[in-house]
Amino acid sequence: MFQHLDIIKTFLLMRRINKLKGTKSKIRVYRHTALDIASNAKISVNRGNLSINKNWNKKGSLFPFLLYVGERGEIQVNGTFDIYAGGKIYVNPNAVLKLGSGYINHNVNISVFKEVAIGEGCVISENVIIRDSDNHKIKGNNKLETASINIGNHVWIGMNAVVLKGVTIGDGAIIAAGAVVTHDVPSNTLVAGVPAKIIKQDVSWE
């Protein structure tokens, strides 16, 4: 099952994990994964497992994946979370990425400058971008350049969707394919479009 692990990187990263007493936390780094993690960065798997660059088939991932955690950056994992083949996750200096449980599909791009939190039982589809900062200020615009993103429990984010700074997505929400989320999404709501707007309320998904 784990024949396509990068054994050395898995071992080295496991040494960085601050496991709680009595837990059975594990981390699995699959082949073609590049790790750039500052010496004072922190990665903690408090329960469950974290898989990086996992593949759906038995041949193993052929796609490159980059995990960057800058100075005093932090990743907190509080469940079993699988990050599938290909993509980039940047946790910039002093930023925090919180992962509950669920999975991210192929070619994700997550950039964290302050905080991104993803809840329990979440499904994030292919080519999704999650970014909590604009990085640049537009003259005359007083809005914050950077603001935390909070994705609730049991959220489904469709392929090619974009989630931008300062957004809270409520529990059970569905983000349609190609949507650009710039405002909060209520719980159990389907949103779609650019920018994303409410299409249907009181939805549920399996």
Any overview of this molecule?
The protein has 206 residues and is mainly beta. 4% of the residues lie in helices and 39% in strands. It has one helix and 22 strands. The protein has one helix at 7-14; strands spanning 26-29, 33-37, 42-45, 49-54, 65-69, 74-77, 81-84, 87-91, 96-99, 102-104, 108-112, 115-118, 122-124, 129-131, 149-151, 156-157, 162-163, 168-169, 174-175, 180-181, 189-192, 197-201. The strands form three sheets. A nine-stranded mixed beta sheet has the order 1-4-7-10-13-16-19-21-22. A seven-stranded parallel beta sheet has the order 2-5-8-11-14-17-20, with no helix packed on it. The protein is globular. The chain starts with 6 loop residues before the first helix and ends in a 5-residue tail after the last strand.
Distance between the termini: 26 Å
Derived structural class? mainly beta
Overall 3D geometry? globular
Q: Could you state the order of secondary-structure elements as H and E?
A: HEEEEEEEEEEEEEEEEEEEEEE
Given as residue ranges, the uncertain stretches (5+ residues, pLDDT < 50) are: none
Number of strands: 22
Helix count, DSSP H or I runs of 4 or more residues: 1
Query: Sheet with the most strands?
Result: 9 strands, mixed
Helix content: under 10%
Q: Looking across the biggest beta sheet, what order are the strands in? A: 1-4-7-10-13-16-19-21-22
Spatial extent as radius of gyration: 17 Å
Tell me the quaternary state: single chain
Q: How much beta, percentage-wise?
A: 35-45%
User: What is the average per-residue confidence, as pLDDT, rounded to a whole number?
Assistant: 89
